[in-house]
Amino acid sequence: MFDFQYAIEIFPTILSALRITISATIVGFILAFVLGLVLAMLSRTKVKTIATITNGVIKFIRNTPLLVQLYFIFYVFPSFGLTLSPFVAGVLGLGIHYSTYLSEVFRSGIDAVPVGQWEVGKALNFTQKQTWTRIILPQAVPPIVPVIGNYFITMFKETPLLSAITLVEILQQAKILGANSFSYVEPITIVGILFFVLSYPASLLIKQLENKLNKKYQV
Amino acid sequence: MSTLEILGSLLKEGLLVTVSLTFFSAILALVLGFGSGLARMSKSKIIWFIAGTYVELFRGTSLLVQLFFIYFVLPMFGLRMSAMVAAVLAIGLNFGAYTSEVVRSAVQAIDVGQREASVALNMTRQQMMRRIIIPQAFIRMIPNLGNQLIELFKSTSLVSLITLTDLTYQANVLNGSTLETTKIYTLLLLIYFVLAWPLTKGMNVLERKLTEGRF
């Protein structure tokens, strides 16, 4: 049933693909973080049209599947002259998709900063940019760190979708091994274990951080 | 192929699978979520442990890996099932684990005074849960359950990877035979949006209706 000898044999091959999985997660997350912050700020501008368009884009992306967005980026963009490698297309899809989720998180963090803090910025004659970077964001971001951390783990667990656009991450590697040996039991079980072993301790860590922050901010 | 023909083909071949898959796996997820969510508050250590293991295991790994495991690995142990059953099982089990946390946190958020009141009224534990706690907790769950439903609906697109003919699979088939890539995937995105958007709106309306004058 489960051939341990074979499992040990293929383990290094799967592990080597983990590099791709992890780098896709990290690059995708950085993109989602930056883009999410930009979207959150754009959706709060006083210029009505920009805010409306931003909210519309967020809604559209949040209400369509990541897998289809990946296909769109990978298969449709080339007809407009933008041919991307599976890795770049995957990271772009992952980053854009989750930026809409992170923008909601940032928005909630920003909304939680008391109105008086904006007035302080004005009273001290800060520019708009100074108010954001020196007063609002330093207060808005720390309390939402656990939620952001959870999205990082979620993104890590979504990376197997990139196998659909031919990126050889751990699941795709497992499928290749399975197709060669006609046994999917060992490779797919190993992938499952790898995901669990990495994401479960991470989620415990975030829970701990959350408890610490809750005490600090007395939420 | 004209845009209309593509739209027709996508809807004719794929819509039924996507919608019924969403329906059945949502029911399974709800049942599993309630069962395991309540089980995690059980005093029995064994029940608590089983429910906890289920939740952490399915939250800790990817849905796609679970789907492949159920569809490709279980048959090797003699558990053979159709792609549709495997898909409902995988999505239901996965979202059941997330729903479990929604149920648990909502039940735990109910004011302790409500429990004391039920004790004062001499209710059994079962009566307390059924008449006092669950009805109040359920209203608190609605917004989260709504979000879960949208996520579940979107995740049904993954079943195309185990060759189940849903909207996404049909789009891939069309793409292979017609090469109208831009039209096909643009339409596919629009179809998903048109289906998900009323779902989001509907849940918002339901939430407002149920919470009117409560909080």
TrEMBL record, chain A:
Cell compartment(s), UniProt: Cell membrane
A biological process term (GO) from this entry: amino acid transport
Classification via InterPro entries: AA_ABC_transptr_permease_3TM (IPR010065), ArtM/GltK/GlnP/TcyL/YhdX-like (IPR043429), Ectoine_EhuD (IPR014341), MetI-like (IPR000515), MetI-like_sf (IPR035906)
Domain ABC transmembrane type-1: 18-206
One protein family per Pfam: BPD_transp_1
GO molecular function: transmembrane transporter activity
TM annotation in the entry: 20-42, 72-98, 188-206
Membrane topology of the entry: Multi-pass membrane protein
The keyword Membrane is assigned to this record: yes
Keywords: Amino-acid transport, Cell membrane, Membrane, Transmembrane, Transmembrane helix, Transport
A GO CC term assigned to this protein in UniProt: ATP-binding cassette (ABC) transporter complex
CDD domains: TM_PBP2
PROSITE patterns for the chain: ABC_TM1 (PS50928)
PANTHER family assigned to the protein according to its UniProt record, in alphabetical order: L-CYSTINE TRANSPORT SYSTEM PERMEASE PROTEIN TCYL (PTHR30614:SF0), MEMBRANE COMPONENT OF AMINO ACID ABC TRANSPORTER (PTHR30614)
Family affiliation: Belongs to the binding-protein-dependent transport system permease family.
Protein name according to UniProt: Amino acid ABC transporter membrane protein 2, PAAT family
UniProt organism field: Desemzia incerta
TrEMBL record, chain B:
Molecular function in Gene Ontology: transmembrane transporter activity
Record's keyword annotation contains Membrane: yes
Highest taxon of source: Bacteria
GO BP: amino acid transport
Alphabetically ordered keywords of this record: Amino-acid transport, Cell membrane, Membrane, Transmembrane, Transmembrane helix, Transport
InterPro entries, A to Z: AA_ABC_transptr_permease_3TM (IPR010065), ArtM/GltK/GlnP/TcyL/YhdX-like (IPR043429), Ectoine_EhuC (IPR014342), MetI-like (IPR000515), MetI-like_sf (IPR035906)
Subcellular location: Cell membrane
Transmembrane portions of the chain: 15-34, 46-71, 184-200
Signal peptide: none
Assigned GO CC terms: ATP-binding cassette (ABC) transporter complex
PROSITE patterns linked: ABC_TM1
Domain ABC transmembrane type-1 stretches: 15-196
Membrane topology: Multi-pass membrane protein
Family: Belongs to the binding-protein-dependent transport system permease family.
Protein name: Amino acid ABC transporter membrane protein 1, PAAT family
Organism of this sequence: Desemzia incerta
